[in-house]
Amino acid sequence: MSKPVKAAVFGTGSWGTAFGMVLADAGCDVVLWGRRPEVAEAVNSTRINPEYLPGVELPGNLRATADAAEAARDADFTVLAVPSQTLRGNLADWAPLLAPGTVLVSLMKGVELGSAMRMSEVIEDVVKVGADRVAVVTGPNLAREIAARMPAAAVVACTDESVAQRLQTACHTPYFRPYTNTDVVGCELGGAVKNVIGLAVGIADGMGLGDNAKGSLITRGLAETTRLGVALGADPLTFSGLAGLGDLVATCSSPLSRNHTFGTNLGKGLTLEETIAVTKQTAEGVKSCQSVLDLARRYGVDMPLTETVVAIVHEGKPPVVAVEELMSRSAKPERR
Ligand SMILES: NC(=O)c1ccc[n+]([C@@H]2O[C@H](COP(=O)([O-])OP(=O)(O)OC[C@H]3O[C@@H](n4cnc5c(N)ncnc54)[C@H](O)[C@@H]3O)[C@@H](O)[C@H]2O)c1
Ligand SMILES: O=P(O)(O)OC[C@H](O)CO
């Protein structure tokens, strides 16, 4: 009998823990790494991650540790699930510990501030590996629904399709259906920009602007995501797939989305400080809206919704003024 696939998951937050559960349910031996020993201890002794997934019983072939070397040892897949803005620093510590030949898998949906690099680019830069050793998991995957084993599809992307296929097999369960894709650029941008549009839709929902506004924001948000993607060499069809439209619809419809909820609180009139204070988990769009806009400016791409989110979140523009300005932009054809 062949040995079970071994996966190390770095990050015991909501998605790291839930995706660890998916891998374990698919038959992998899973070790979760968390920076706080008490979280690892709680997972091992109670089979529950009380802070991030209370009430979810984790499978017996998943254990946790606060020792990064122990987690990384012999891992076929090294899965990264920390906030996008801390990845570079975290990975610098972990790089010397990684198993030779391991495939690095990004679960993150952000763009690095300053460098405007996608997460797979940060991984290649820090670990000094080629694109064929880096994969991305993305799509409409709200962690709490996956943890409840509710059905969802996802995308596993790698420039090397055979690597994507190995990962697909390693995480395919009766409730989690991964599709492969070789358009890593498009898949990552879909995930990062949907968080920004999720903020915009949340703001509109908080202001009570209705479902026409929501449909309009989702569609125009997808249009600007696609424009950016095409400028960066992505396949435009990726954005009508799970990593684009699929994730955008889930995020913009769900109260489980941290980005959508963050925006809703701002739209209801909470200040940025008050909204940050009530947000317990990572809402990537809050920082990535700035790096996505930087990327758009570098490539000369017009992203009015992203620009508006940056103005509301980081420059204190009142949402009412932002709506007036968006609606009075010069008239243009839908496609150009
Ligand atoms: N939660 C979801 O539904 C979901 C689904 C798909 C993708 N994602 C993406 O996955 C990534 C992780 O999100 P999450 O939901 O697990 O976030 P989370 O806030 O639930 O957990 C983040 C984890 O990172 C740890 N962490 C925070 N700062 C750290 C640091 N400086 N060094 C090391 N660890 C640190 C936290 O302790 C926690 O364990 C994000 O990019 C997010 O966009 C989340
Ligand atoms: O909670 P959010 O807003 O980070 O969204 C979670 C996932 O990305 C949805 O696919």
TrEMBL record:
Query: Molecular function (GO) terms listed?
Result: glycerol-3-phosphate dehydrogenase [NAD(P)+] activity; NAD binding
The UniProt record lists the Glycerol-3-phosphate dehydrogenase NAD-dependent N-terminal domain at 6-163
Q: Which InterPro entries match?
A: 6-PGluconate_DH-like_C_sf, 6PGD_dom2, G3P_DH_NAD-dep, G3P_DH_NAD-dep_C, G3P_DH_NAD-dep_N, NAD(P)-bd_dom_sf
Q: Where do the annotations place substrate binding?
A: K109, R258, N259
Which residues are involved in binding NAD(+)? Answer: G11, T12, G13, S14, W15, G16, A143, R258
Q: Which GO terms describe its biological process?
A: carbohydrate metabolic process; glycerol-3-phosphate biosynthetic process; glycerol-3-phosphate catabolic process; glycerophospholipid metabolic process; phospholipid biosynthetic process
SUPFAM superfamilies associated with the record: 6-phosphogluconate dehydrogenase C-terminal domain-like, NAD(P)-binding Rossmann-fold domains
Compartments annotated for it: namely: Cytoplasm
UniProt keyword list: Cytoplasm, Lipid biosynthesis, Lipid metabolism, NAD, NADP, Nucleotide-binding, Oxidoreductase, Phospholipid biosynthesis, Phospholipid metabolism
Residue numbers binding NADPH:
S14, W15, R35, R36, Y52, K109, A143, R258, E284
Q: In which pathway does it act?
A: Membrane lipid metabolism; glycerophospholipid metabolism
Query: Which reaction(s) does its UniProt entry say it catalyses?
Result: sn-glycerol 3-phosphate + NAD(+) = dihydroxyacetone phosphate + NADH + H(+); sn-glycerol 3-phosphate + NADP(+) = dihydroxyacetone phosphate + NADPH + H(+)
EC number in record:
1.1.1.94
Which GO terms of the cellular component aspect does the record hold?
A: cytosol
Positions binding sn-glycerol 3-phosphate in this chain are K109, G139, K194, D247, S257, R258, N259
The active site lies at K194 (proton acceptor)
Q: What class of enzyme is it?
A: oxidoreductase
Positions of the Glycerol-3-phosphate dehydrogenase NAD-dependent C-terminal domain: 183-323
What is the recorded function of this protein according to its Swiss-Prot or TrEMBL entry? Catalyzes the reduction of the glycolytic intermediate dihydroxyacetone phosphate (DHAP) to sn-glycerol 3-phosphate (G3P), the key precursor for phospholipid synthesis.
UniProt cross-references to NCBIfam families, sorted A to Z = PRK00094.1-2, PRK00094.1-4
Similarity comment text for this entry: Belongs to the NAD-dependent glycerol-3-phosphate dehydrogenase family.
Q: What is this protein called?
A: Glycerol-3-phosphate dehydrogenase [NAD(P)+]
Q: Could you tell me which species this protein originates from? A: Streptomyces griseoloalbus
| Lineage of source species | Bacteria, Bacillati, Actinomycetota, Actinomycetes, Kitasatosporales
